[in-house]
Amino acid sequence: MFRLRNPVKAYAWGSREAIAALQGRPPSDEPEAELWMGAHPRAPSTLTVDGADAALDAAIAAAPGAVLGAESERAFGPQLPFLLKVLAAASPLSLQAHPSLAQAIAGFAREEALGLSISAPERSYKDANHKPEVLCALTPFWALSGFRSADAAARLLAATGAPEAAPFVARLRGRESSQEPEGERLRAVFLALFAHDDKAGLAAAVARGVPALEAAGYADEARWTARLAEAYPGDVGVVVALLLNLVRLEPGQALFLDAGNLHAYLEGTGIELMASSDNVLRGGLTKKHVDVTGLAEVLSFRAGGVPRATRRATPEGAVEYLTSAREFRLSRLELGATEARALQASTGPEIWLVTRGAVRVSRGDTSLTLGRGESALLPAGALPVEVTAEATRATVFRATTALSPA
Q1: Which of 123, 185, 282, 341 is catalytic?
Q2: Structural contact between residues 380 and 347, judged by C-beta atoms closer than 8 angstroms
Q3: d(CA 202, CA 332)
Q4: Counting CB atoms within 10 angstroms of each CB, which of 119, 258, 266, 296 has the fewest?
Q5: Residue 54: strand pairing partners
Q6: pLDDT band for position 176 (50/70/90)?
Q7: pLDDT digits (tens, 9 = 90+) for 146-159
Q8: Catalytic: 282?
């Protein structure tokens, strides 16, 4: 077992307090958006091996079988297949979606052929992997995720009272004589919004409709429309946001976002686990590169409810978040003061993160004590793991592959 030292990503939407508080530090002088725990080459964790510091991706490359295990290496190659993060949003992230694996492979090859630097601001594909992700709330957490039904989106847009929105309301409702599928109506309106001749005027008109939205019973949508319009004045993403499901997660609840899900994290702190990728296609609410054509190619315009991750209790007393991803599995273990729990072995690598209290993790004749905000890599191994809370209650998040025994 190896204690990890993890990089913090300082994006503008991050919190100055959340990650610092988790790690027992004073508030940061700059926004801290994400704490990365993994081996992604853009920001790998570091660990100490035989007295020397090493980046986790380099340590895996030196001994992939010993770290990953044969089953994970066979399934995903000589790389850690997941990336664990603490995400701390003090202000909204961009509207975005992630590609499927096939789309990521093709998109990465295309941008490589164009000679774009990995750090180029107009680059969307930073690697050749997909990025399904699960986010579990640590605090109350607000997000936009997936398209509302066309009728629900039409009612919401109409409630703003903005005359400029009327053509989009009509298009969402469709023609009485038409049997046009709902997804086609959503796609047509999405593209038409970005093609509008006066996107800034349209966004401003919808923002002026915030009092009407609230009066119509859409208090949460009104509040977030106002906040988005204030943060990104004139951005048509303010209007696009009204096409999407608005969701509030309570601590312990989770979302699962598969390829093609248009979403934006708005506010809150959560644990995020994903396939090891940094591919993002953006569609507004950002000063970064927006690729509407590329985004539309990967989006799913299928309307539906909020894609929450189903929770189930494991025989060991943990809570597991079920997803369709093969690369990762997230579980949360709650321990009473001084309580010990035996956990079955995983066939693949694991990363553990403590978010409350402190625990001692033991495997065979080795052990490691982790305090709040600390994390560790557990290489693949057949030995079971015992975890014991110290003097207070403790919470541990455990990231493994979905190839591990259930």
Answers
A1: 282
A2: yes
A3: 44
A4: 119
A5: 47
A6: low
A7: 999 999 999 999 99
A8: yes
3-state class of 240 per DSSP?
helix
pLDDT at 49 over 90: no
The pLDDT-based confidence of 68 (bands split at 50, 70, 90) is: very high
Q: Are 245 and 305 in contact (CB under 8 A)?
A: yes
Provide the residue type at 123 as one letter: R
Query: Can you tell me the distance from the alpha carbon of 284 to that of 266, in angstroms, rounded to the nearest whole number?
Result: 13
* Count of C-beta atoms within a 10 Å radius of residue 200: 13
Confidence band, pLDDT 50/70/90 cuts, at residue 404: low
How long, in residues, is the chain?
Answer: 406
Amino acid at 45: S
pLDDT at 178: 66
Which residues sit opposite 35 in a β-bridge? 8, 86
CA pair distance 80, 72, nearest whole angstrom: 8
Read off the pLDDT of residues 280-324 as tens digits, 9 standing for 90 and up: 999 999 988 898 999 999 999 999 888 889 999 998 899 999 999
> Encoding tokens for residue 18?
């959340």
Q: Above 80 in pLDDT, residue 98?
A: yes
Q: Which of 257, 207, 211, 323 is nearest to 93 (CA)?
A: 257
Q: How is residue 68 written in tokens?
A: 């990953």
The pLDDT assigned to 304 comes to 84
Task: Give buried/exposed letters for 268-282 (b at 16+ CB in 10 A, else e).
Answer: bbbbbbbbbbbbbbb
Question: Which residues lie below 8 Å from residue 210, measured CB to CB, with a gap of 6+?
Answer: 160, 222, 225, 226, 229
Which residue matches tokens 């507004």? Answer: 284
